[in-house]
Structures are given as C-alpha cells and as structure tokens.
Design goal:
Low-confidence stretches: none
Number of domains: 1
Radius of gyration: 15 Å
Helix content: 25-40%
Structural class: alpha/beta
CATH topology: Rossmann fold
Oligomer: single chain
Largest sheet: 7 strands, mixed
CATH architecture: 3-Layer(aba) Sandwich
Distance between the termini: 22 Å
Shape: globular
Strand order of the largest sheet: 5-6-4-3-7-8-9
Bound molecules: adenosine monophosphate
C-alpha cells in the first residue's frame, strides 16, 4: 500500500507555511484504512497493553479500530470543555498554536499500560501532554502511534523515550 499516494496534502492550511497532511483521505479509502489498522495491530502485537487513549479528533477513528481489534478499553483525550465529568488536563503547544487536552479522571485508572494514538506526530507536544497525564495518574505509556511522522520537527526530543511508531515519515514540508 502506497500511503503517500493516499494521503491528501494541503499547502498553507490552517495557516501559511504549514503543509497539512490530511488522513481523512485514508478513511474514504477502505483498502488503505484496513491496511493502516492491520499495520497498527502488527506493530503492537507483542506489547502488553491494557487500554487505548485516542486523541481528538482523527485519533479517535484510529484508536477505536485498534481497541476493538484487541478488545481493549478505549478512552478519549478531548479538547478543553467537551467532557462532562471530572477531568485531568494538560496544556501544550502545537506546530501551530496552543491547546489543552482533558481525560475523564475515572477513565484513567493507575497501574495500567496505555497505547496513545493520534493521526500525525509533528512536534510531539500533543502526545507528550497525554503521556504526562498518564504518568501523573500513576500509569505507564505502553506505546505511541501516529500514522504520519514529521521527524524534522524533532518529536524525538519530547517523546523519543516512548519509542513512537509511525507508518510513513515525511522529511520536510
Ligand atoms: P504536535 O503536537 O506538534 O505533534 O502536533 C500533532 C497534532 O497536530 C496532531 O493531532 C495533528 O492532527 C495535528 N497536526 C500538526 N501538524 C500537522 C500537519 N502538518 N498536518 C496535519 N495535522 C497536523
């Protein structure tokens, strides 16, 4: 599967100078979507994982498929203000802008191993924020997954210790 051909690229979105890698063009292509979910399952097949944390919004779609395949609990890391219950939160900076992610406190028990899933890893700030939440609650990051990696933004400096896995990397924009 040539994922590069499937992934839609939109220059100057959401602001000038950013090349946006749009994974929704994977979701509209069933063989590509199936390939991605199968590869994810293979990459973490030997990993002991107690649950999946999916990051809003495109991470939800990938994380839910993986969680169902492995029959694992799925919890959502949502943008600030969306979750109705008591939450733990972490703020972070994006390749473009600032954001806060929240998780329902009771969904994140301690002493568990979590796989954190998003669509793309740029600076690693988003995944690092969720990893911090996991560790603050006394749990462990079992792995990190993004379909796309942008290693030139040096995400390894933030999340390299979690051995993040990607299916396709782009070396520049
Ligand atoms: P970061 O926290 O810098 O690793 O940014 C990752 C998050 O921002 C992911 O949730 C992505 O969906 C989004 N993102 C950042 N840069 C891009 C990009 N160039 N194309 C598509 N999504 C991006």
């Amino acid at each position: 599967m040539d994922l590069d051909k499937v992934i839609r690229k939109i220059p100057d979105f959401p602001k000038p100078g950013i090349l946006f890698y749009d994974v929704t063009s994977i979701f509209t292509n069933p063989p590509a979507f199936r390939y991605v979910v199968n590869r994810m399952a293979e990459l973490f097949a030997l990993e002991k994982i107690d649950g999946v944390i999916a990051i809003e919004a495109r991470g939800f779609l990938l994380g839910s498929c993986f969680a169902l395949e492995r029959e694992l609990p799925l919890i959502l890391a949502r943008k600030k203000g969306k979750l109705p219950g008591k939450t733990v939160s972490e703020s972070y900076s994006l390749e473009y802008g600032e954001a806060t992610l929240e998780i329902h406190t009771e969904d994140l028990p301690s002493h568990k191993r979590w796989l954190i899933v998003d669509d793309l890893i740029a600076t690693g700030g988003t995944l690092e924020a969720v990893a911090k939440l996991v560790e603050r609650q006394g749990s462990t990051v079992a792995g990190i997954f993004g379909v796309i990696g942008l290693p030139f933004l040096n995400y390894a400096a933030r999340i390299g210790r979690y051995n993040p896995k990607t299916l396709i990397d782009y070396q520049g924009e």
